Amino acid sequence: MKRDNRMTASQSLISAGIAGVFSRTATSPLDVVKIVTQVGTFHSKRGLLNAFHTVYQKEGLRAFWKGNSVACIRLVPYSAVQLATYNRFVHLHMDDLGHISQWRAIVAGSVAGIVAALVIYPSDVVKTRLIVQNSLDPAYRGALHAVRCIHRKEGFLALYRGASLTVMGAIPFSCGSFLVYIHLDKLWGEPSVRFTPLQNFINGCLAAGVAQTLSFPFETVKRKMQAQSPVLPHYGGVDVHFTGMVDCFRQVVKAQGFLGLWNGLTANLLKIVPYFGLMFSSFEFCKRVCLYKNGYIVSPLSYQLAPGVDQSLRPQELRELRRLLRNRSFKSEQSAVSNRW
Question: What are the Solcar repeat spans here (predicted)?
Answer without folding.
Answer: 7-92, 100-187, 195-289
